[in-house]
Amino acid sequence: MKKHLLSAADLTRDDAELVLRTAEELRSLADRPIKKLPALRGRTVVNLFFEDSTRTRISFEAAAKRLSADVINFSAKGSSLSKGESLKDTALTLEAMGADAIVIRHGASGAPHRLANTGWTRSSVINAGDGTHEHPTQALLDAFTMWRHLGGAGKNGGGLDGRRIALVGDVLHSRVARSNALLLRTLGAEVTLVAPPTLLPVGVEGWDVATSYDLDSVLPKADAVMMLRVQAERMNAAFFPTVREYSRRYGLDSRRMGLLQDHTIVMHPGPMVRGMEITADVADSKRSVIVEQVTNGVAVRMAVLYLLLGGSEPAGAADDRHDHHDSAPATDGASQ
Amino acid sequence: MTDYLIRNARPYGGEPTDLLLRDGIIAEMHPSVPEEGDEGARLEGHSVRSSGTEDGDVETIDADGLVVLPGLVDLHTHLREPGREDAETVDTGTSAAALGGFTAVHAMANTNPVADTAGVVEQVWRLGREAGHCDVYPVGAVTIGLEGKKLAELGAMADSAARVRVFSDDGKCVSDAVLMRRALEYVKAFDGVIAQHAQEPRLTEDAQMNEGELSGRLGLRGWPAVAEEAIIARDCLLAAHVGSRLHICHVSTAGSVEIIRWAKSKGWNVTAEVTPHHLLLTDELAGTYDPIYKVNPPLRSATDVEAVRAGLADGTIDIVATDHAPHPHEDKDCEWAAAAFGMLGLETALSVVQHAMVDTGLLDWADVAQRMSTAPAAIGRVGDHGRPVAVGEPANIVLYDPGATRVVEASETASLSRNNPYAGRELPGRVVATFLRGKATVLDGKLA
């Protein structure tokens, strides 16, 4: 793997499968009384959040702590960001303090690239969401969740070959959609972006995905449906006429849920706008894996931190062998 | 005053010629006669030799292999003074201009205070005269404070010592159609021109880069070509309707070239400029997220670059203008969205034009002189500049070595700023000397 995780495009298929297999190993920790491994003892992980995102921050924090890393939470929201200076100065400060990894959430697309490529810091940089660009660990946890439910191709695969995934909603402004489209294609899935034309990016035809304006026609073929949040500020910017019309055309309600195949799962990266893009009965249905996504987020972020900082082999299996794993040849190597 | 005898120089790239600069004019021109055993102090291969005569000193410059062009005229320069003297001053900006071969620059109005009164334009004009590196022609703001609401006192600026003829809200578009119409009409009284920064504001709110597949992938807000083209189309129609002169700043898209070509085919009085960076750089560079490549209008696609080159070659685009836009380091050493728009251009303009237009066979040196000196001087109504290289004409000339190459170094500049998008690139050519009314402002590539 590369030193940084800035974009889902940084991951080769081998990289991505390694993360998923490692996450599978680490996920079992959650079921044990002592949820901690010594893998990153003495390492420092900084959560550098220029935007509020409690769920992502605590997910990274839990992941780092379960690997015994020291965690520093640095919330820079509300400071004089308009000048942008604080990103550089903050990076220099963290560099001076000796951070091994910087997990950055920033409102400006490309801020993690700047952090990684300017020489401001030598740390590994993990993009925890930048502007409307990418959110690669979200894509990894989504892929992990799909993989657990939909299965990979072949015994050793972490892949999603041939699985049909629909991403529905505000693709234009969604970093989750960008990272998912890239990663799911890397893992062999077929991706369809479903949105009103106003919420599809210009040039999306070059993304190697299918697009549709018609949700009803996509749902019956999908193996997983991921609903994307529509942010409040889009509502008055003429992307669609009214919230009600959006919900009627692109919301996932119980009627549409009836169009799904039996095995199809429903996902949402959160936070949901219930009643807008997804109704409560769908979000709380048996198909919904939304809560599991959160659990999987910790495992996937543990895997990313471990692989970037701790070595290229999966952790977790050194002392404990799990009978359920059959997917990761590297596990055997690590356990010996 | 020192006279200069320039030997073996090639006017417009033509036959070797000796030129004598005396009393601020080109006093004599003769075909060169090959001379044996030429001596003198060799400076970078071009010797400067001094000798006394009864009239004063004569310096001889061996200009073997050098092209002589009329001193370049920039219709679009940001000198930042008054207000942002940390980025550039009239003195440093005109030094950079002279090093780039310019003998005249038009200083844009978006200073602080804005150049929207006779007082401010006279101040900039006076600072230019005091610095003495090249002539400074202030551009007056079209509207008070560049706010697009009320016309500035255009007549007062025209009548001032600065003799303003070019008016622009550059950096902002005069987007109000009525205001634009009135401005176009009003400046007819003193033969002025409105230089429009064509950017439909609603279509470009928070826009960061050229809208296309890459902006979608990078998550940077797109800046659609139509935002430029729609304003250009509207303003061409307005200029035709009221019979006024319109100049389009920094044309960047293939569609803009097409619209201007159409307007010119109608015989309308529309001129247009392209920047060196839009002749060379593409939006792919935004993929680095390095704001050194952030500029307004944004870098466009390779197709657009080809179109603006073709437009400049066939005369649809009249001139090259630098849009030299200095910014202090901290305004570029940050994340993309927080960074300032703009890039330096004065010291690299001729090299970029050689690379993009001459070395590609699209223009010869006479064409370059037309597009970087004659035509911009004509648009700006600048009498002493853009004159031919001929006996009796003002000795505003540049000696340029098209055979040189260099790797651009950001720190090697007279500008106070370092936002040079060509840093690290190899570019052809080197300005060897610049003369302003017979006085050397640059000799051997250094400020004289």
UniProtKB/TrEMBL annotation, chain A:
Residues engaged in binding carbamoyl phosphate: 55-56, 105, 135, 138, 270-271
Organism encoding this protein: uncultured Nocardioidaceae bacterium
Span of the signal peptide: none
Enzyme class: transferase
Protein's UniProt name: Aspartate carbamoyltransferase
Biased composition (Basic and acidic residues): 318-327
Residues annotated as binding L-aspartate: 83, 175, 229
Cited InterPro entries: Asp/Orn_carbamoyltranf_P-bd, Asp/Orn_carbamoylTrfase, Asp/Orn_carbamoylTrfase_sf, Asp_carbamoyltransf, Asp_carbamoyltransf_Asp/Orn-bd
